[in-house]
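Internal tracking record. Fields below are filled automatically when a chain is submitted to the structure queue. Please do not edit lines marked as system-generated. If the sequence contains nonstandard residues, flag them in the REMARKS field before resubmitting.
Queue: standard
Priority: normal
Entity type: single polypeptide chain
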Amino acid sequence: MSDSTQIKGVVKEKYAELARAASCCGPGACDCGSGDTSMIGDGYGGIEGYVPEADLGLGCGLPTRHAGITTGQTVLDLGSGAGNDVFIAAREVGPSGSVIGLDMTPDMIELACRNATARDAKNVEFVLGEIENIPLGEASIDVVVSNCVLNLVPDKRAAFSEILRVLKPGAHFCVSDIVTVGQLPAAVRRSAEMYAGCVAGAIERSEYLSTIADFGFVDVVVKEERRIDLPDAQLAPLLSKAEIAAYRASGNGIFSITVVGKKPA
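SYSTEM-GENERATED OUTPUT FOLLOWS
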């Protein structure tokens, strides 16, 4: 799984399957991992603009909560899936603003467009493309958001380089993502299913934050952070009982973090 092309292929096929399942089964048909653990915690209940049909349970945070989105802005959602965070941001920017959802999976783009059409959402657009090569102009975006997607990108430095490129001077990003603290068991790392399920593709928290700093982002702050305790049932196919016990006792683990940062003016 070290080859980035192979990794992308696995992730793309996994999320195409999720999009097709959602089309057949409706909202909440799929989520990160087995469905036995909440990657978000309090979820989207009560948030204005929330569209249940666009929520596939794939997020690990609420980036729009800390994104500081205001009327008239242009917002870009990286890895927009069925459009969940796009529709929330669209309400915040209002008719004078716009929200662009970028996703590399055609099935997700198709599903998101259907959701937009069903709601007559005129200030949203969904674009097929990859985060490492965003098909948008330089300094064209006011706010970049992303929810549990950048950890799936093989080249995270390329991802943050592109975020920096498309942001306007003084503009900012707000990203919810999965990171690790300490060493994860090799069996978890090797699992392509776990990788597409938002866990095994994560990098160390310190490396994640240093990558952001390396590109010159300023005012970088972790707004929310929570440990994700995977249930034994999810780990059992990969690890023995003794290995699970050792993993839990080690203090190492998986965390959801929401980070904001600003492009220098």
